[in-house]
Design goal:
Elements (H helix, E strand, L loop, with lengths): L4 H18 L16 H14 L15 H11 L3 H7 L5 H11 L2 H12 L5 E4 L19 E5 L2 E12 L6 E8 L8 E7 L5 E5 L12 E12 L10 H37 L1 E2 L2 E2 L4 H28 L6 H26 L10 H11 L6 H19 L1
Parallel strand pairs: 1-4, 2-4
Antiparallel strand pairs: 2-3, 3-7, 4-5, 6-7, 8-9
Helix pairs in contact: 1-2, 1-3, 2-4, 3-7, 5-6, 5-7, 7-8, 7-9, 7-10, 8-9, 9-10, 9-11
Length: 393
Amino acid sequence: MTISSEALEMAAKVEAFVREKIFPYEQDPRRDHHGAPTDELVMEMRELARAAGVLTPHIRPDGSHFNQRETAVILIKSGLTPLGMLACNTQAPDEGNMYLIGHVGSPELKDRFLKPLVEGRARSAFFMTEPAELNGAGADPSMMLTTCRKDGNHWVVNGKKCFITGAEGAKVGIVMAKSEDPDSKGGACMFLVDLPDPAIQITGVPNTIDSSMPGSHAEITIDNLRIPADQMLGDAGEGFKYAQIRLSPARLSHCMRWLGGCMRAQEIATDYANRRTAFGKTLIDHEGVGFMLAENMIDIKQCELMIDWCAGVLDTGSLGTVESSMTKVAVSEALMRIADKCVQVMGGLGVTDKTIVETMFREVRAFRIYDGPTEVHKWSLAKKLRRDWKAAQ
């Protein structure tokens, strides 16, 4: 499947906008105490994106999505700075939540909950991960302890969640809970809720190594949250299936955005290495430096190829769980190498906040964990190898 000229034109438009209008915001002091951009800053940038015609660029005005290969060329450009994805409304968790609601939600739910997200007027949160001390759902959603039970024409949800990205300040929530209803056979349910809600309490917002996402990663207590039955997303008991519908493309979208950021870090490090002189010649002419940047070139190209391959699989209608796991591992580890080398090339300057290079190092380090740590994906792939081996005997 080829990438349309429409998508390529949008990607070029996004890149021009991000470079011209958003790069200057990188030193803007409007940050919360976790270091994330404030909602005031985000909304200011989104008005610029709206005026430039690049707000939510991966979704057409008629509500249809570009395919995954086309989305990749657009999201990579929006990720050239962490602020770019916020300005263009392609950031996590909203991009993944828009994808899920668009694929599973009823027309009524789309109008009520999806529309304000697509318009960039609201942020959202996905309530799945649970505290490790409770042995709740993390990389393994089947361990979910948060419960929901039917009560008339409502469902009542109780439980604890953690690392809920963007919960603080979000207007739309997708709550995932394990059903106690016999008809659901112990499956999970997903619900759309308006936020804030007094039954969903933020009990803490820890400081984390990454700082690009407004609202950070909150700890949550859900106490007798009553949700009308018509706000269930899809069917009762099918939540784990819907999680896979969301998670495979979401993992890939993360790869797209952070690849854009590492491409930018490579630009900055390469520029520095060509300007800085030491020991009688420019840094890039020292093999120890030039080879690091050359290795980054190779890793960047390999990331592009992996993303394009996985996107092509998803475009066939496959869930792509194996392909997205392989891509998430390969790309996140490669991006870590790229970011680390960029810091090393720039020396002291590379660990300061004067460029986004140190930001990308922190963000990519976190990426190796969220949406499934590298080791969990490798374990899943090893299980497949064993299944395939047994089937071949």
